Amino acid sequence: MSGRVFVALFSGINVGGNRIVKMAELRAFFEALGFIDVASYVQSGNVVFRAKKGDATALTKQIETAFEKKWGFHSRIMVRDLAWFERLVSENPYPEVAGDPTKLHAYTLERQPTAEEISRLAEKCTGPESFEVKGDVLYLKAPDGLGKSAFANILPRTLKVPGTARNWRSVLALLEMAGKSGSDG
């Protein structure tokens, strides 16, 4: 099978009725860029695809530029490969809540935060939540759910490292989709 499997995570599309992007159109857009085995998952913008060439960084730039040209607004996109997703799941520091995906979220960050950025965030984490950063992933355990979490609300602007969050159910579904795409042929 030619090419490597990647997952593209979009942020800020189809939220609150704004910046609407239909998944069928998004899949067609990826195919038009020459990617193969394109599949999407739920409306928040998750696309599993296979690329013949390019790494995550190059693909991110290519897709962001083409997306903005087609839809007329910028969406921050995180592109990660299958091995990255496998590591994300295997390194989960909160296995005790993995069975309840509303309580566990993974933030894919544009870069690894500095120790200073992490400690600034830790000072604000005074509620029932706990978090751990591993490389460019922030794991957030929110016992009362993300919707009720005041900490989750302030997290992006406190950390100041751009990222996009997915609940654990999405993470596992994307890993499964990418794994299937990666193992066939």
From TrEMBL:
It comes from the Bacteria. Gene3D superfamilies: SP0830-like domains. Pfam families: DUF1697. InterPro entries: DUF1697. This is DUF1697 domain-containing protein. It comes from Mesorhizobium neociceri.
